[in-house]
Design a protein that fits this description.
Strand order of the largest sheet: 6-7-8-9-10-11-12-13
Largest sheet: 8 strands, parallel, barrel
Number of strands: 16
Strand content: 15-25%
Number of helices: 15
Helix content: 25-40%
Structural class: alpha/beta
Oligomer: single chain
């Protein structure tokens, strides 16, 4: 319901993860008996978690490790992995740079041209391990990179920008035709990001196999602060899920939605699925994994038309192995590890045996949920991270 924010001006109330809570179900399920698997195109994954296409998160080694654990990692085809033969050396320079030097250094690093030969090399290296291969490009380079990736054996292709819509008005030539691209490539096509019901429906009609939901919630994303655009993830996910369900009823084709960004702990992940998400995409939590190329540091590549680096650099600290972040045991008590275990337990408490049943979990508006009765936890720094 919209409220007046001024004379003849209404605004709809939107919600984020910290403002809601999940209600236990009338029936509970053994967490060991729940099914967390999901499907993207013809590919089925045991773990409904995707690692973001960020240079400080995903390289070839991380993508292989994530795939072998049942999840998916997306390799950025426009970052250092395709600009440098030895990206590890470049990452090491950034890790060792002072905060004052970081922005200039990142700008210099991304001025190096992309080498198309490296696109095929990176895809082939992941493919050889048996792990699923997913890569990402902005719309302006999607057609060329999709062809290169497909030739090397890529399994899934992501088209990502700050905002992606089916209709794009420009005086600079024809925009990317997602429907035409989908017909050309022989792999699932996932695109984003969006936050509205209408934009989701439009994208579904192009034939894409998945849609990313979220504008500005990520730890390294400055969209909300710089241009003031974004919708809190609870509302954005619910609206996208409603569009997915309406489209399925109309056509019989189910297109999964992926909540992208804004999830710091397991509880946020669980809430995303209750709001209707089929999978989640996470960056900052994985940036501190022992297998992550940044090993405690991450930054974001701007997914704008000019493909400029954001230069945002965040120290998040090194955590344990990727397997512990996904499945535990947790080394820290702030909820940012054992994410799949948290999801299994939440599904069990809510009485959901599958992800789709989790979509029907009861939700309450609870803005005090993070602080109610937590005075002693805060004082002793228990369960809040250290």
């Amino acid at each position: 319901m919209a409220e007046y924010i001024g004379i003849e001006r209404k605004a709809r109330r939107a919600y984020g993860f910290d403002e809601i809570a999940l209600v236990p179900g009338a029936v509970t399920v053994d967490p060991d008996d729940v099914d967390t698997s999901w499907q993207l195109g013809s590919v089925r994954f045991p773990v409904p978690v995707i690692a973001s296409a960020m240079d400080g998160v995903v390289d070839v080694g991380f993508a292989i490790a994530m795939g072998k654990l049942g999840g998916l990692a997306v390799l950025n085809l426009e970052g250092i992995q395709t600009r440098y033969e030895n990206p590890a050396e470049v990452l090491d320079k950034i890790v060792k740079a002072s905060p004052e030097e970081a922005t200039r250094l990142v700008q210099d690093i991304y001025s190096e041209p992309i080498k198309e030969s490296l696109v095929g090399e990176r895809v082939a290296a992941i493919k050889a391990s048996g792990a699923p291969v997913a890569v990402s490009a902005i719309p302006q380079r999607a057609e060329r990179f999709a062809a290169l990736a497909a030739e090397a054996g890529c399994d899934l292709f992501f088209v990502q920008a700050t905002v992606v819509t089916r209709k794009f008005l420009t005086s600079k030539g024809a925009p990317l035709d997602l429907a035409a691209l989908k017909k050309k490539i022989r792999m699932p096509l996932i695109c984003g990001n969006v936050v509205t019901y209408e934009a989701c429906l439009d994208l579904f009609e192009t034939g894409v196999d998945g849609v990313l939901v979220g504008i500005g919630p990520g730890a390294a994303c400055t969209t909300r602060g710089v241009i003031g655009v974004g919708v809190p993830q609870v509302t954005a996910t619910c609206d996208a899920a409603a569009a997915r369900d309406a489209y399925y009823k109309q056509t019989g084709r189910y297109v999964p939605i992926i909540t992208d960004g804004g999830m710091r702990v397991g509880g946020d992940v669980c809430k995303a699925f209750a709001c209707g998400s089929d999978a989640v995409m996470i960056g900052s939590v994985f940036a501190r994994a022992a297998e992550a190329p940044g090993r405690g540091f991450h930054w974001g590549m701007a997914t704008s038309n000019r493909n400029l680096p954001r230069g945002t650099r965040i120290r998040v600290g090194v955590s344990g192995p990727l397997e512990e972040i996904l499945f535990g045991p947790a080394r820290i008590d702030d909820g940012s590890e054992n994410l799949v275990g948290a999801l299994r337990n939440s599904m069990g408490v809510c009485g959901a045996r599958t992800i789709k049943e989790m979509h029907r979990a009861e939700i309450v508006i609870a803005p005090s949920i993070q602080h109610e009765g937590k005075l002693f936890q805060k004082a002793q720094k228990v369960g809040m991270g250290k």
